[in-house]
Amino acid sequence: MSDQPILQLRGVNKSFGAVHVLHDVDFAAYAGKVTALVGDNGAGKSTLVKCIGGTYTIDSGSYEFEGTSQHVSDPRDAAALGVEIVYQDLALCENLDVVQNMFLGRERLRGIVLDEESMEIAASDTLKSLSVRTLKSVRQRVSSLSGGQRQTVAIAKAALWKSKVVILDEPTAALGVAQTAQVLELVRRLADQGTAVILISHNMLDVLQVADTISVLYLGQLAATVNRADVNQTQVVELITTGRSGNLGLQPIGTITGASA
Ligand SMILES: Nc1ncnc2c1ncn2[C@@H]1O[C@H](COP(=O)(O)OP(=O)(O)OP(=O)(O)O)[C@@H](O)[C@H]1O
What we know:
Layout: E1 7-16, E2 19-29, E3 34-38, H1 45-52, E4 60-65, E5 68-69, H2 75-81, E6 83-86, H3 98-102, E7 109-110, E8 113-114, H4 116-129, H5 147-160, E9 165-169, H6 177-192, E10 196-200, H7 204-210, E11 213-218, E12 221-227, H8 233-242
Parallel strand pairs: 3-10, 3-11, 6-9, 9-10
Antiparallel strand pairs: 1-2, 1-4, 4-5, 7-8, 11-12
InterPro entries: AAA+_ATPase, ABC_carbohydrate_import_ATPase, ABC_transporter-like_ATP-bd, P-loop_NTPase
GO molecular function: ATP binding; ATP hydrolysis activity
Pfam family, one: ABC_tran
């Protein structure tokens, strides 16, 4: 695996009118790694992710993908690069089944009819490759699935489409203990397949369990990027709540520490 990030933002600023939300933010994601993006309410996580996903255009700074500078000003630009955001609402259609949801908008045709067989095989293969055992049938309607199963379908959809960077917005927020464990295992397997996973979460246990690297935003600035192995929960919470950690001996806000892949 490469030490070079697949996605690299440097010195990113974003304002809404007079409100300066992101201040010189550096952020990177690596193929095969889970990068957690954490921060208190209003720290700027959603804004940063929307800049990555093309919903917002950065005001200044650089956006590099696979080492090449990009101008991303539309979600289609990000999608063309292979960046997929799985939002909390999951954007699944209740009245369609798992296969139909995974292929929604990108259906396969055989002649002029839908190639149901090939789509079903591809969906099943993707779920198998991610060791998903929680779905009874890929022909189940989404309306009959649990929250964890729905999250699984949304993540598997990103895997099916070979997304290179998958951003997961609070994937376990609405889940119980067992389903949370299953979704975190899925997150890990997605990264193990070579995807760069960005995990937004307020749940420190989830973050510490699954992340390789943790980037902490504090009041729109990057407080630190740390390797999971170098920190404990207290230190991450301190970074989230104060923007610095005395225990880590980190420099003040804006410093990247130990962020090698
Ligand atoms: N469109 C906007 N116009 C003005 N201010 C905005 C806009 N979007 C976000 N902000 C402000 O930017 C700051 C960061 O918001 P953002 O939603 O990115 O934080 P967050 O870390 O995702 O928070 P949360 O964890 O609560 O979702 C907040 O102070 C918010 O009010």
